[in-house]
Amino acid sequence: MRLLRKFLEWIDEDAPYGDRTGELAVPGNMLARALIIAKSPLIVAAVEDFTAVLGFFGIDAKILKKSGEKAVPGDAIMELRGRAGDILLVERTLLNVLSYLFSVATTTEKFVRAAKAVNPKVRIAATRKTPPGMRELVKKAVEIGGGDTHRFGLSDCILIKDNHIALMGISECLKRARRGSFVHRIEVEVRSLEEAVEAIKEGAEIVMLDNTGIEGAERIISTLKSMGLRDRVKIELSGGITLENIAPASRLDVDVISTSAITMHPEPVDISLEIVEVVK
């Protein structure tokens, strides 16, 4: 129901007074069959979520490529049957959302493949940097691409960031955070060796090395090892991670690498909707 409400809002943004062209050019009782077709190599994501949404518009959606499956140019991903005007009404909104989700899944898979070729144990995670209103779908696309969803939002997990530290300091933040439920791990974002050491000694379970650069992270991790602190925490590397540097980043002794590139700047894929038959 939540996705349907969002989709209706997106349709209302595109067609607040209906589809003027479709209403004039196409008979209201005309039935059609359409295909959503891949125009570039991609990984399909979240198509199953949209069958009920399309059903609300009277469109019967048949999935031809399931989430997680690869598609190449020319492959049909979904078949839509219904009134031609309804298909045309949802066309652009549906393609916009699906192409973005496919892009996220496809880009995530590229990051994961490049990272695990170097370090099979490292996990590639998304961040909270997602388009408003699409968090759940975006996280699902990341997971379909083989990535880790990280936290879904501020209500999920305890992550002490730079602004928390600026207000209260690492030690006081950790002291207060430990008052929460035992089910929540506590992660601290740090930008220096000194902050990392303080966070670990004060009981952080995960330390995020944020914007330290790969060489800086390597120095911090090396020193933590020499101090006997490395194995007391999981280490996450974040900030400035791209496809170009994911391999050297993965060679470090880190457990998780998080990047906003897979959700904010995914490599775009292309799909189209084509009417293939007027149903008699």
Explain what you see.
This protein is of the alpha/beta class. The chain is 41% helix and 20% strand. The strands form three sheets. It has a six-stranded parallel β-sheet with strand order 6-11-10-9-8-7. It has a four-stranded antiparallel β-sheet with strand order 3-5-1-12. Helix 10 (246-250) links the parallel strand 10 and strand 11. The radius of gyration is 23 Å and the shape is elongated. The model has no long low-confidence stretch (mean pLDDT 95).
Quick structural overview:
The protein has eleven helices and twelve strands. With 280 residues, it is α/β, with parallel strands linked by helices. α4 packs across α5.
Number of domains: 2
CATH class designation of the largest domain: Alpha Beta
- Helix residue percentage: 40-55%
Round the mean pLDDT to the nearest integer and report it.
95
Q: Top keywords for this entry?
A:
alpha/beta; TIM Barrel; 2 domains; six-stranded parallel β-sheet
SSE inventory with pairings:
Layout: H1 2-14, H2 20-25, E1 31-38, E2 42-43, H3 51-56, E3 60-63, E4 70-71, E5 76-83, H4 84-116, E6 123-125, H5 135-144, E7 158-160, H6 162-168, H7 170-177, E8 186-190, H8 193-201, E9 206-210, H9 213-226, E10 234-238, H10 246-250, E11 256-258, H11 261-264, E12 271-279
Parallel strand pairs: 6-11, 7-8, 8-9, 9-10, 10-11
Antiparallel strand pairs: 1-5, 1-12, 2-4, 3-5
Helix pairs in contact: 4-5
